[in-house]
C-alpha cells in the first residue's frame, strides 16, 4: 500500500513564516460585526455528487456516492475515507469510473446513502447506521454498462461518465497522528469522457452546455440542483480550447478493452 502513496509525504513542508499585513486600511466596527465566528462540524459548502464505480477483488462492481471531488484539466482529485470499499478497490486496481448524476437522479443516489460494499461494516460506520450492500447498482436501480478502457462499469443513467486511472494517492492530515491514514486523496487521470447528447452544446463537437447540464450538488449533507446562471462570467470569455492539455492526447493512446470488461453484478455472485 505504501508503494502506491505519492512521495509528497516524505518531503518536509517549508518552514512557516509569520506574514504581516501590509499597510492597508482595514475597516473595523460595523463591517467587522458582519461575521460571527463559528466552528461547523463539516465544511461541505457544495460540490457535485460523483457515483464512483470500482471493482472488488472478485471483480464485483461497487458504486459509492461521494462529493469531495474537483477537477483540473483531465485530472480529478477524490477525497475518500481510507476504510471505504471504494478506497480499497482503488488501491488494488487503480481504476474507476466517475459517473456524474443529474439532479433528477437524487432519489437513486439517496438509496445508496448509508450503504457500504465492506463486509463486515467498519465499527464507526455501523454506529452511524451504515449496512453492507452487495448489489449497489440493484439497490440504486441503476444500469451498469461496460466501459471502454477500465473494468469498472459505467452508469447508463448518468449524463456524464468518465473512465479514469489512479496516478497518485495523497494522504490527508499526515501532520496529525490522530487523523493520519484516515482519509486519502486519489489523483485520477481521465481516459474517456462519455455524455448523453442532451447535455452537449449545439453546434460543437466536444463541449458540454452548462445551461443543459444540471448536476446534483451535495451541500452540508443535503442534495440540491443548480439554478440558472446568475451573472455574465468574465472567465467564460477565455475559449475552452485554450484549456486543452496533454492528457487528452494521451487518453487516445489507451485502446479499448471492451471485450474484457464483462462485469458481474452483485446479485449474480
Ligand atoms: C451524497 C453523498 C456524498 C458523499 N461524499 C463522500 C465523500 O466525498 N467522501 C467519502 O469518503 N465518503 C462520502 N460519502 C459517504 C460514502 O458514500 C460512504 O463512505 C460509503 O460507505 C462508501 O461506500 P463503500 O464503502 O462501498 O466504498 C458520501 C455519501 C453521500 C450519500
Protein architecture, described:
- The protein has a single domain (41-268), classed as Electron Transport, Fmn-binding Protein, Chain A (Pnp Oxidase, Chain A), CATH 2.30.110.
- It has 5 helices and 14 strands.
- It is globular, with a radius of gyration of 21 Å.
- A hairpin with an 8-residue loop joins strand 9 and strand 10 (154-155).
- The protein has helices spanning 85-93, 106-112, 123-127, 136-140, 246-253; strands at 47-48, 50-55, 61-66, 69-72, 75-81, 95-100, 115-116, 131-132, 144-145, 154-155, 160-171, 183-195, 217-219, 222-224.
- The protein starts with 46 loop residues before the first strand and ends in a 16-residue tail after the last helix.
- With 269 residues, the chain is an alpha+beta fold.
- Bound molecules: flavin mononucleotide.
- Its cofactor is FMN.
- Residues 237-269 are annotated as: Disordered.
- InterPro entries: Flavin_Rdtase-like_dom, Flavoredoxin, Split_barrel_FMN-bd.
Point out poorly predicted stretches: 264-269
Heteromolecules bound:
flavin mononucleotide
Q: What is the CATH top level name?
A: Mainly Beta
Mean pLDDT: 91
Strand order of the largest sheet: 3-2-6-11-12-5-4
Q: Radius of gyration over alpha carbons?
A: 21 Å
* Secondary-structure arrangement, i.e. CATH architecture: Roll
Order of helices and strands: EEEEEHEHEHEHEEEEEEH
The SS-based structural class is: alpha+beta
Largest sheet report: 7 strands, antiparallel
Approximate strand percentage: 25-35%
Distance between the termini: 27 Å
CATH topology: Pnp Oxidase, Chain A
Give the CATH superfamily.
Answer: Electron Transport, Fmn-binding Protein, Chain A
Amino acid at each position: 500500500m505504501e508503494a502506491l502513496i505519492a512521495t509528497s509525504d516524505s518531503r518536509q513542508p517549508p518552514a512557516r513564516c509569520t506574514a504581516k499585513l501590509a499597510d492597508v486600511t482595514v475597516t473595523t466596527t460595523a463591517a467587522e460585526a458582519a461575521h460571527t465566528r463559528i466552528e461547523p462540524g463539516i465544511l461541505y459548502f457544495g460540490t457535485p455528487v460523483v457515483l464512483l464505480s470500482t471493482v472488488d477483488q472478485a471483480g464485483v462492481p461497487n458504486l459509492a456516492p461521494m462529493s469531495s471531488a474537483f477537477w483540473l484539466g483531465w485530472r480529478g482529485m477524490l477525497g475518500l475515507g481510507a476504510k471505504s470499499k471504494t478506497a480499497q478497490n482503488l488501491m488494488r486496481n487503480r481504476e474507476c469510473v466517475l459517473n456524474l448524476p443529474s439532479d433528477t437522479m437524487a432519489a437513486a443516489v439517496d438509496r445508496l446513502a448509508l450503504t457500504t460494499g465492506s463486509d463486515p461494516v467498519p465499527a464507526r460506520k455501523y454506529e452511524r447506521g451504515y449496512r453492507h450492500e452487495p448489489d449497489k447498482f440493484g439497490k440504486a436501480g441503476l444500469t451498469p454498462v461496460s466501459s471502454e478502457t477500465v473494468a469498472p462499469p459505467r452508469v447508463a443513467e448518468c449524463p456524464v461518465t468518465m473512465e479514469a486511472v489512479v496516478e497518485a494517492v495523497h494522504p490527508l492530515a499526515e501532520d496529525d497522528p490522530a487523523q493520519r491514514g484516515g482519509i486519502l486523496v486519489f489523483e485520477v487521470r481521465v481516459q474517456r469522457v462519455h455524455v448523453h447528447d442532451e447535455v452537449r452544446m449545439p453546434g460543437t463537437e466536444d463541449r458540454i452546455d452548462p445551461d443543459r447540464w444540471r448536476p446534483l450538488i451535495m451541500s452540508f449533507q443535503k442534495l440540491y440542483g443548480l439554478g440558472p446562471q446568475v451573472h455574465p462570467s468574465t472567465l467564460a470569455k477565455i475559449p475552452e480550447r485554450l484549456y486543452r492539455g496533454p492528457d487528452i492526447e494521451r487518453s487516445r493512446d489507451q485502446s479499448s478493452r471492451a471485450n474484457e470488461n464483462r462485469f458481474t453484478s452483485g446479485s449474480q455472485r
